[in-house]
């Protein structure tokens, strides 16, 4: 058993793996970098699918969830990254498609300073 404490991002990825998540769809950005790093450093079976736009990530996740019946996971950054998920997220919500959208957030001391 690993006795090294996990940070929040590592704990998140470990939990997703423990829950059986197979894929994470997403597009990297500054506020979510620790989570993207954890996807590479924490030993899991999770495969990351890099997209060219956040909206593509939620639509791909929607298709995956509809085809498999398993919850889909999307990972994006804050600000415009999160905003770009709304159309696909609402489509999934209206059709009761199981989806989790994770979004990074700027550090608390930067909130309100145009840091998204």
Description of the structure:
The protein has 116 residues and is of the alpha/beta class. The chain has one domain (8-104): Rossmann fold, CATH 3.40.50. It has five helices and four strands. The chain has a four-stranded parallel β-sheet, with helices on both faces. The longest helix has 15 residues, at 54-68. The mean pLDDT is 92.
Strand order of the largest sheet: 2-1-3-4
- Indicate the overall shape: globular
Largest sheet: 4 strands, parallel
Radius of gyration: 14 Å
The mean pLDDT is: 92
Unreliable residue stretches: none
At CATH level 3, the topology is: Rossmann fold
Ends: how far apart? Answer: 38 Å
Pattern of helices and strands: HEHEHEHHE
What is the number of beta strands?
A: 4
**Fraction in beta strands:** 15-25%
The level 1 CATH classification is Alpha Beta
Structural class computed from helices and strand pairing: alpha/beta
**Helix residue percentage:** 40-55%
Number of domains: 1
Name of the CATH homologous superfamily? Thiamin diphosphate (ThDP)-binding fold, Pyr/PP domains
**CATH architecture type:** 3-Layer(aba) Sandwich
Number of helices: 5
């Amino acid at each position: 058993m690993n006795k090294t404490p996990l940070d929040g991002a590592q704990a998140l990825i470990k939990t997703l793996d423990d829950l059986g998540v197979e894929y994470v769809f997403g597009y990297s950005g500054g506020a979510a970098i620790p989570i993207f790093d954890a996807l590479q450093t924490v030993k899991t079976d999770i495969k990351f699918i890099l997209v060219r736009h956040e909206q593509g990530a939620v639509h791909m996740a929607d298709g995956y969830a509809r085809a498999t019946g398993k919850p889909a996971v999307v990972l994006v950054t804050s600000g415009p990254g999160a905003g770009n998920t709304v159309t696909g997220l609402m489509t999934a919500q209206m059709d009761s498609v199981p989806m989790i959208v994770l979004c990074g957030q700027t550090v608390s001391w930067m909130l309100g300073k145009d840091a998204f």
